[in-house]
User: Fold this.
Amino acid sequence: MALPPANRVVNSLQDNFDHKFVPAVGRAFQAGLDVVQLFSQRQPGTAAIHFTPQGLQGTAKYDLQTIHSIINDALVVHVSFAAGPEDPFPTILPMIGVMGSFDHPSADLSEPLDCYLHGWVSSRIMRLAQEKSSNGADGLPVCVEATRVDGLVLSLTPFSHSYNYRSAVLHGYATVMTSDEEKLWAMRMITNSVVPKRYDEGNTRVPPEKAEMSATNILRIRVVDGSGKIRQGIPHDDKKDLDRDDLLNGIWTGVLPVWERFEEPIPSPYNKLDPPEHVKAHVDHMNQVNREYSVQATKEP
Assistant:
C-alpha cells in the first residue's frame, strides 16, 4: 500500500520511556520506536503514542490500530481549523468521523487510513477546504480529536485525582470529495458507523436523492501524523500520604467506572414497527463492550 506523505517527524521520546507504565492495550508498542514513540507521564498507568505514516512495519502497526480505534469508537470527534486571517480564534466543530480507505477498502485499522467527515455543503469548513484545493494547496490543515472517559480516579489528595481515558489526535489536510462514487462509499461507511447495517438491508431509504447529495459534502482528511494517550489503573498516591493512617482511615479511594450506555429504543411519532434486530443487537453489544472495557480499565497495566 502506498503511504501518504508526512511532513513532520516526531522527535524521539525513548529516553523517557518506562515499560512498566505501558497499559496492557499497548504492550505491542514496545517495537518500532522509530515510528511510534512512547513515554511515561507523571502519573503511572499512562502511556502516550505518536506516529507518522512512514516506514510502518512489524508490530508498529498495532499503534495505528489503537489510535484509529479511538477515533472510530467516539460518537463525536472535534475538528479544529484556522478560520482565516480575519478571525484570530481557531474554530472547533463537533462532527462524526470515521477512519477508512476508499483506495484500499479492505484495509483494516492497523494500516494507514484517511479520516472521513460529513457536513452541509455551505458550512465554513467545506468552503475553506474547497478554497484551499482550488488555490493548489494540499487542503485545509485540520486537527481531529477524540476522547473516551472510562473512569473517575479518586485519590487521597486533589493533586492525584485523575481519569481513566483514551484520547487520540490526528493532523492532516482536508479536501472535499468530488467523486460521487467515493462520496457514496463514505456516506455508507459513516451511516453504518452510527448503527451497523443501518445503510444496508432496507434499513434506510437509499441511495440518497440528488438533492441530498448536493446538500451534503464529504471531507477526506489525509493524515500527516497522529498521537494517542491512554490511562488505566487505580489511584497512585505519594508514599508520604500512604504512610499516614489518618488519611487511609478517613478517605475513600478508588475508581468509579464510566461508560456510555444505550437505553431501550424510543419510537418516533410516525413509526409503525417494533425495533429491528440490527438496532437491538447494537444496543446490547455496545452496552456490554463499553461496560467491560470500563471495568477492565480499573486494573493496573
About this structure: The chain is about 25% helix and 30% strand.
